[in-house]
Protein 1
Amino acid sequence: MTDAQQEARSYLSEEMLAEFKAAFDMFDTDGGGDISTKELGQVMRMLGQNPTREELDEIIEEVDEDGSGTIDFEEFLVMMVRLLKEDQAGKSEEELAECFRVFDKNGDGYIDREEFALIIRSTGEQISEDEIDELLKDGDKNADGMLDYDGTCMMMMMMMMMR
């Protein structure tokens, strides 16, 4: 088992593993232990994804470690974990955009120090005033004491990665 396959298994709960195995087995029509590109598309749609043909080809190319042109179950798990992580990253970005809108009290497109401190504290992080000032300074591109949307997102993503 490759490192990517071990990492994929450790990322998933037993329940998710069982769900993915059931879906995989359903489309492994010949029982050979692998699925084709066409079958892969059916599996992913059943699991709530909607890949294009190009995306399916790219996915197979990325995860087909043995070069068979098909995906075995371990390769399938690696692929599904990548998709789950991408989906979660997209949701995190949406949440950050909503957070920015909520904390940008005056709607000017910038977060000042007071608004930024509220954002940081709303995450439950234990952080000092000096640390808040340092984070603000790091994300403040033009040294005006305020963060724009990109700067705010960068700071929040850094905080999420430090958890």
Note: DSSP finds eight helices and four strands in the chain.
Protein 2
Amino acid sequence: MSAIEIPATGAARRSPRRVQPRVVGAAGALLLGGAGWLGAQYGFRHAGLFLVGAGCGLVLYHSFFGFTTAFRVFVTAGDGRGLRAQMLMLAVATLLFAPMLAAGEVFGTAVGGAVAPAGVSVLVGAFIFAIGMQMGGG
């Protein structure tokens, strides 16, 4: 009986790239400049959230995390780990946010779901986002 070969996915497919100091420096300067501007205009809470979002994006980028990748790996290789991770994230988010939304407030601050009609701009944006995700391999 021969072994079944599973196609390489994610990090195994991508070859390591050299760090480009100028690009890293420019990106860091833009992030710090943006955080400084946000801090001056809107307060340090917004600046901190901006940096946390940038850090989360960097972690997801370097972990080669992508939503469509999990589906592709499941269909092509039968590996459902990525799908299970996504379902776990959805379950945790639901368990954490549902009680908060039902209560209507958290720590004295009102919370609620954002409900708005989906117009043409949402459809165009979703289409452009999908193209970018496919081009990026995610």
Note: The longest strand covers residues 105-106.
